[in-house]
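Trying the structure run again after the queue cleared.
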Amino acid sequence: MKIVKYVFIIAALAAVFLTVYIATGKSEYEINVSEKTELSNQRLFRYVNNLQNFPDWNAYENNPDSFKLDSIYKGTNSKIMWSNNEVSISKSIPNDTIYLKMNIDGNEYDTQMFFDEANGKTTIGWNIKGNLSFKEKFEIFFQGTPQSLIGPIFEQSLSKINKNITESLKNFTIKNEGIVMIPEMFYMKQIVESDIENLGDKMFQSMEHMNNFAKNFELEPYGAPFTIFENINVLSGTVRYSVCMPIKNFFSTAEGSDVMCEKMPAFHGYKTVLKGDYIHSDKAWAEVKQEIAKKNLTQRADLKPISFYKTSTLNTQKSNEWVTEFIIPVNETVIPIVDTPADSLNVSN
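Done. Tokens:
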């Protein structure tokens, strides 16, 4: 009995010593995870920088109903909360680095996510600093490291970011809707140059600028924003266009202002609708041009192609939900009916 008693005491003391040893061990840790992708750093940055997308790539919780966005949900000082958890962006450097602070399940993480693009590919790197809980220390003591224990959950998040954006880009539809009538309107515009890849970013920045312009000068915008394409190079993927905002009344701007006011006459045009990311704009333009040729329509020389952003980055960051109308002005008001010559008909008795 004494031997059993001594063994029990020794085991108890060993357990106490082990517990104390583990508990007083180093708590701070730093790990790094990464993911390689063919997506651009701009696209990746825009997706992560908007916490509206966080529920879709967060590996800790997949119940979108439990998430609550703060009044600021994009960029520096943005925040999202759920079930006593919180993630915030303390700082963001465009297309480069996002500083994410995370408090999840009682664990605090101070992280930096960076986007390094080279030779047409991007590496998403994520540096994570934190403090180990006693449970984590206990698990690491017997097996693994902070990298092997904590790293996989962050690796899963990076994988979701890559997968979600890639699938969203593939998910698009193009539909021809025929000839439509566009009413006369006043609009303010700002000329921008961009490649198709950055069309969404450039348009959003210009729209914000014109929204602020309208507020400062007490103008009243109405209707969907649109762009007038001044010069399109489908092969190189670059466009020069005017970003426009419909307004109710005409106004004059000072000389040298980057915002101008113009009047668009009413016209008829052939419309094709793209539902999906702007990166597919070249396909939509090619489709509407093909339909005009197929239906023997003639393009107006005095008016340039136009596109209306019915649902855009101004409404949602999910690019597969964007709806853009591509319209080329034509001289016809209806699609002409081509008569078949009588002598070409086969008549049999």
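Residues 25-170 form a domain with the Alpha-D-Glucose-1,6-Bisphosphate; Chain A, domain 4 fold (CATH 3.30.530.20). Worth checking whether this holds up in the mutant runs.
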